Amino acid sequence: MKNLRIALVGNPNVGKSTVFNFLTGLKQQVGNWTGKTVEHKAGYFKVNDLAIELVDLPGTYSLTAYSQEEIVTREYILNEKPDVVVAMLDASNIERNLYLLLQILELTPNVVIGLNMMDIASASGIVISASKLSQTLKLPVIEVIATKGKGINELLQEAIKTSRRDEAPQPIKIKYPEELEKKITEIENDLKEGQFPRRWLALKYMEGDQALEVEPPESIRKLLLEWSQSGWNEAKLEMAITDSKYQFIESLLPKFVQVNKQKGASWTERLDRWALSPIWGYPILLGILIIVFWSSFVGSAPIGDLISKFMAWAARDLVALLQIMGGPQWLQGLIQDGIFAGVGAVFAFVPQIGLFFIFYSILQESGYLARAAFLGDRFMQAMGLHGKSFFSFVSSYGCNVPGIMATRTLENPKDRMITIFLNPLIPCVPRLGVMSAVVAVFFPGGRGAIVMISLLVLSLLLIIFSSFFFRKTVLKTEKSPFVMELPLYHLPTLRNIFLPAWEKTYSFIKRAWTFILVASIIIWVLSNYPAGVPIEETWAGQLGSALSVIGNPLEFDWRIMVALLFGFTAKETTLSTLGILYGVAADTPQSIAYAMTGAMTPLVAYIFLVVYMIYIPCLATVVTMHKEIGSWRWTGFGVVYNLLFSFGVGWLFLQIGHALGF
Amino acid sequence: MLSEVLKIMDLEQSLAVTEIAKKLGWTLQRVENTIEQLESMGYIRKREIVSSSCKAGGCSGCPGCSFGKESFCQSSPNPTKILYSWVITDRGKNALH
Q: Which one of A132, A425, A511, A573 is most buried, by most CB atoms within 10 A?
């Protein structure tokens, strides 16, 4: 009985294993290749007088030496010399599959092609003529539908036929460009006939293949060194060789591929032509932001009013109940002016924050948020600034803490440091929540959307300025562009919109009950003691007075300064602090909006928003900054920079506002 | 083919994969194949954008941050952790210049 050894080769997921299982059934041996973690699969069966050993080689895209799969496959073909190699090709991705085939042909001419996935190719409007492919490659080609078992027996018969041929097949030979061909021949001529095909070995020497068992002779080493010195280094040679193979494939395709209908671009490609367009991308982004913020402000207003009224009613009735029960005066004050004014102030804006999170989820889930951040990054690069900061900026719009941690992907310490310093300038979701609440108070309705967008644009401009400042002064670095894979557009499901939105809103509410409740109680104590004195003389008032040295140039009320100070612990506490301090002063705890609008002008409110947006990262962010930078000095520098920068920008805007007559 | 994509990547501007496809008049599949090959040959290096911070768990207590929440990451069809970018390696630069 004669023996026949057949190797199955192909790209991953090309249907190779299906063919293997169909032919071998249960007669398989599975193990690992010696010294490798790659699975070795062999099957044995008989066909008439032939004992066939079928080896399923690991799926691979090429036969270079960059992965174990590649090395195992090529070593098997080179050392074990199978009688026939069955190359499975995926018709729907023919170019890449032919690239592997060309490399196989450099090792052996005894190849039979199984052309699979014709149905998928056909659905894409691509029709491949198996007969023309066969004529072009000068190799037998069998159409296969592996999943249905069709064509597999014919493929086997063709492999047997090829093994019985007296003369070795003469498949198509790749032609490299003249310059490259000359170099290949030069090396080839220096090689003696041996274990490996000379042409293949010449190519591998040129590519600087690290897994070769045969060292190049001295003459070839010298030649390679000469080429390298004249600019043809290994990296360049390998790329030229690979490019030539693809060019060769490209020249062959029209001979057997017919594109019946020009398949239109995918939805993602079509949408990205607009969404990422240097001309239309930014107006589209602006339009989307206007819709999001306008809808958040206007849509949430009725529910926000209802909650405010409910809070006022609950506080009044609870205090009335306490009075009936003879509850102490301080407890009544704490409930009305502390808890309900502080936590209530936050709750009144929950609908708005919730609605904003819903829109945020839609943008994120649809895949647009990544594009918005990408546009922002490109804008920065267009200004000659840093590009890599994008990595962490995406995270920072959620929260600065993961944003800073995401800078770990940057290798250059200076790049990393700059990105860390820039992160706190990005308004995180909690900050956006508080900002939108304050905007709703001072700029109700559609005006609020414009104000919010102006703040976001300002944040971007300030990031650009700061990046430019750091790169040109303290931490000089080079630009570093990159290519980004953006997610495909998706139609978000209701679950994927509402679940994250609910999680974020719930997190906000939870903190209102826990952290903000505690902060509200502390603020109430600070703003009510020593007892019996005007609020300006309470501990909070005294603290505010001390801070007013910084706040006065910006026309900030002492209450704003205290709120900003407490915002350092967690950004949401700013809102509750304002609620308590203004509530106490105006004696109308149920209406923070009324109290605040009476205490500061829209211009000062805008300045407050600018400062609040960038003034200082929260405590958790500062701790993370220190962990990541590893230096209190640089962490301190970042914090002080934010502080000075925010108040400086605020002061500048105030002057501009006054000059414009606001 | 590889050099065309690598040359575009070497430009002083960050790009999305779809934009490379548009610039070269290629299909997205072809660009993705090329990028995959460039990466396997060591000309470019892949980077995850935010998954490292997601896995670190340091952000789990942050309000509003969806990236640190496993439930969200698993339920999302577009989890941010699968966003990738590529940068040119020294080997890639050697091949170009």
A: A573
What interhelical angle do A602-614 and A446-472 show, nearest 10?
40
Q: A296 — contact with chain B (CB < 8 Å)?
A: no
Q: Which amino acid is at A189?
A: N
> Cα separation of A573 and A434, whole Å?
9
A506-539 tens-digit pLDDT: 776 776 677 777 877 888 888 888 877 877 788 8
The answer to whether the CB of B6 falls within 8 A of the CB of A239 is: yes
**Shortest Cα distance, chain B CAs vs residue A485, angstroms:** 5
Can you tell me the mean pLDDT for A380-401? 62
Name residue, tokens 């109940």: A321
Position B68 pLDDT exceeds 50? no
Residue bearing tokens 């790749």: A174
Q: How many residues does chain B have?
A: 97
Q: In chain A, what is the greatest distance between 2 CA atoms, to the nearest angstrom?
A: 112
In the prediction, which pLDDT does B77 show?
42
Which chain A residues touch B49 with a CB distance below 8 Å? 390-391, 394-395, 406, 409
Task: Retrieve residue A349's tokens.
Answer: 């804006």
Kindly report the pTM of this predicted structure. 0.63
CA distance B97 to A233: 10
Contact B48 A409 (CB under 8 A): yes
Residues of A in contact with B94 (CB under 8 A): 233, 235-236
Amino acid at A524: W
CA atoms within 13 A on the CB side of A150: 10
pLDDT value for A306: 83
Q: Residues of A with CB below 8 A from B35's CB?
A: 483
| Residue A99 pLDDT grade (very low, low, confident, very high; cuts 50, 70, 90) | very high
Asked if residues B47 and A446 have their Cβ atoms less than 8 Å apart, the reply is: no
Judging by beta carbons within 10 Å of its beta carbon (0-12, 13-18, 19+), is residue A262 exposed, middle or buried?
exposed
Q: Using an 8 Å Cβ cutoff, are A425 and A462 in contact? A: yes
| Interchain proximity A484–B14, CB inside 8 Å | yes
Chain B residues 13-52 with CB within 8 Å of chain A: 13-22, 28-30, 33, 35-37, 40-44, 47-50, 52
Q: What is the least distance, in Å, from the CA of B50 to any CA of chain A?
A: 5
Nearest to A480 by CA among B44, B68, B73, B82: B44
**Given the structure tokens 């605020």, which residue do they identify?**
A650
Does A477 touch chain B if contact means CB atoms closer than 8 Å? no
Whole-number Å distance between alpha carbons of A264 and A74: 38
Question: Mean pLDDT across chain A, nearest whole number?
Answer: 82
Longest Cα–Cα distance in chain B? 47
Minimum Cα–Cα distance from A268: chain B residue: B18
Cα of A11 to nearest chain B Cα, Å: 12
